[in-house]
Specification:
- The structure is a single chain.
- This protein is mostly beta strands.
- It has a domain of 100 residues.
- The protein is 11% helix and 37% strand.
- It has a 4-stranded antiparallel β-sheet, with no helix packed on it. A 4-stranded antiparallel β-sheet has the order 2-3-4-5, with no helix packed on it.
- A hairpin with a 5-residue loop joins β4 and β5.
- α3 runs antiparallel to α5.
- The N terminus is likely disordered.
């Protein structure tokens, strides 16, 4: 039997009185129709997708300079793209086919592997000076990736041999990583103590290199993984991600599988994981992998035709996803709440039910949530959707504005 006394009951009577003022209490949601809004990721304001001179092979973000670097095989250049606008600023010529790249910890040096040349190009981003380090005959000419270990040392992989440790101060080159490594490894740092290698689909092997041992041996190996070359690592270095698998860094025990994912990319704060699928983007919590946003369309999804998705990166604030797909560089805004303004209960439509929910939130009967879907639709509202006035709180003013939308009164919001 419903409670008919006390503060909560009194507030509900006030809500009914509020709705009665509009003459809508006895009408169903269908009476008003709905103000619908399709969930969709959208490019950041001011961004236009970049059309590159040729297909790209690797993507590196340089947030300090506000640019992205894309390695382009055909013209043997590194494209420099404005992260805010998508404008191609310039191209840096390199003496070979650029493959994997790494931005040094100082942010002032870009390392570029040169496939077909057997070398690494070092680009000083302050002076624009360039120098070349040969990695043959220790490695083959097919350099796949390069990783800075510190300001003096590089790790270089060609996929045919053990890794090459290059000491730029001592001018030495040493083969490390005991045993044969898979073809075309992707190098990723995993904390201070480890480097992970992910190989091409022909083998799809994941390996862990121990940086604390001077010989840099392979200490863990996992095989038959889902596109290990799409390797990503969590900010704390404890979790590895392949195309659809979540693994522990030490030992590679599987934590979770994300069906349909083609890329899994953790955010810099470690709180979220972005799953890129054939049709779009899903944003998940990193601990329970519950969906925050689902099925957000992206212009660079793999089913949009053309070349496959080569690389995906998220800038440090976690607000923008950059996708390299052939000769196209796309950006998707991950922070915009995809629920339409006014859809307080996240059910994809705006009705009198949302009005009642917003009123309850304004008097403390519901809490606010920053995300959709809601963990508990009976006791929460979506703050971005319910805050029609834009003052970052939910008040009766928001309910009034929302009611105007529902009954068809024209205003700036609907």
């Amino acid at each position: 039997m419903p409670n008919t006394s006390g503060p909560a009951a009194s507030t509900r009577r006030q809500i009914k009185a509020f709705l009665a003022m509009f003459g809508v209490l006895a009408l169903s949601a269908a009476t008003f129709g709905q103000v619908s809004g399709e969930a969709a990721a959208s490019p950041p304001q001011g961004w236009t997708d970049t059309v590159l001179p040729a297909d790209g092979t690797d993507l590196v973000l340089d947030e300090g300079r506000g640019v992205a670097y894309v390695s382009l095989l055909a013209p043997q250049t590194v494209a420099v793209v404005d992260l805010a606008t998508g404008v191609l600023i310039r191209e840096i010529a390199v003496p070979g086919d650029p493959s994997g790249m790494d931005l040094g910890a100082s942010g002032d040096v870009l390392y570029v592997g040169l496939s077909g040349t057997g070398a690494v190009e070092i680009i000083d981003l302050v002076t624009n000076d360039q120098s070349t380090i040969s990695v043959t005959p220790e490695l083959s000419i097919l350099v796949w990736d390069v990783l800075e270990l510190d300001a003096n040392r590089l790790l270089v992989a060609d996929g045919l041999n053990p890794l090459l440790l290059v000491d730029m101060t001592l001018n030495t080159k040493t083969l490390v990583g005991d045993g044969s490594l898979g073809v075309g490894p992707t190098l990723q740092r995993a904390g201070a103590a480890n480097v992970l290698l992910g190989t091409l689909p022909s083998a799809s092997i994941l390996q862990r290199i121990d940086l604390l041992d001077p010989l840099l041996p392979v200490v863990d190996t996992a095989s038959l993984l889902d596109h290990a070359e799409r390797l990503k690592v969590s900010p704390d270095g404890l979790t590895a991600y392949t195309a659809s698998q979540v693994l522990q860094t030490n030992g590679f025990a599987q934590i979770q599988t994300i069906p349909g994912a083609e890329w899994l990319v953790p955010t810099a704060d470690g709180a979220r994981v972005v799953a890129v699928t054939a049709t779009g983007i899903n944003v998940l919590t990193s601990d329970t992998f519950e969906p925050i946003y689902s099925d957000l369309p992206s212009a660079c999804s793999s089913n949009s035709g053309g070349a496959p998705v080569e690389r995906v990166e998220i800038e440090s604030a976690g607000s923008t996803l950059y996708t390299l797909k052939g000769a196209q560089l796309c950006a998707d805004d991950l922070m915009t709440d995809p629920s339409p303004l006014g859809d307080a209960n996240c059910d994809g439509q705006i009705t009198v039910v949302d009005v009642a929910a917003v009123i309850e939130a304004s008097v403390g009967l519901r809490t606010t949530s920053p995300i959709c879907p809601l963990a508990d639709p009976t006791s929460q509202v979506s703050l971005p959707a319910a805050d029609l006035s834009g003052d970052e709180i939910v008040t009766v003013l928001d309910a009034t504005l929302l009611m105007n939308c529902v009954v068809g009164t024209s205003n700036a919001l609907c």
